[in-house]
Amino acid sequence: MDIKLLILDVDGVLTDGTKVYDIHHNVLSKRFTCKDFTAIKRFIASNVKVVMLSGDIFNKSMARKRNIDFFCSRNSDLSLDKSRYVEIFQDTYNIPADNMAFVGDDYFDLSIFTRLHATFCPADSPQIIKDNSLTTLNSKGGEGVIVELYDLFYENGWIIEASEQQVAALDKKEVTSQEMS
């Protein structure tokens, strides 16, 4: 597999899908695993572009602070069809669909699962997603899915190991890291 673009759903992949709401039904928080963000930096340092494709605009500021391109699949007609982004990514990044991988977990990801070959899902995905995924990972959503995916890519020789220096340099560029000092 020669993957040049890794497309990540957010809720249910990087999180367990849980959202904490206030009384007005505004999202207050979500829970992410820091190791997955390190794995994303490792992918980038291994020459794999990473983007996030989510139906929830709430995730946009998180992606921006981590220097990850973000695309909201819920457009003006409220459609959640993620498959239309295959062409957008081909045009934006000049990468053919054969060199794209997608990680998703839920029914609204099905359309893009049917368009790409290199598809992956967390262990707690619905059966219809598992049936349409190239690989069902052992990790549940929010519990190291991207770490496991990176290890799978590395163990199969699909990517070269990122150096600690490259990953640290990417970390220093993130707003989230700069805000910790």
Describe this structure in words.
The protein has 181 residues and is of the alpha/beta class. The chain has a 6-stranded parallel β-sheet. Helix 5 links the parallel strand 7 and strand 8. Helix 1 packs parallel to helix 6 and helix 1 crosses helix 7. The radius of gyration is 16 Å and the shape is globular. It starts with a strand and ends with a helix.
Describe the secondary-structure layout:
Layout: E1 5-8, E2 20-21, E3 27-29, H1 34-45, E4 49-54, H2 60-65, E5 69-72, H3 85-93, E6 100-103, H4 110-113, E7 118-121, H5 127-132, E8 135-136, H6 145-155, H7 164-173, H8 175-178
Parallel strand pairs: 1-4, 1-6, 4-5, 6-7, 7-8
Antiparallel strand pairs: 2-3
Unreliable segments (pLDDT under 50, ≥5 consecutive)?
none
Structural class: alpha/beta
Number of helices: 8
Order of helices and strands: EEEHEHEHEHEHEHHH
Overall geometry: globular
The strand order across the widest sheet is 5-4-1-6-7-8
Q: Tell me the number of strands.
A: 8
| Helix share, percent | 25-40%
Radius of gyration computed on alpha carbons: 16 Å
Strand portion: 15-25%
The chain-level mean pLDDT equals 92
Main sheet, how many strands, which sense, barrel? 6 strands, parallel
Distance between the termini: 39 Å
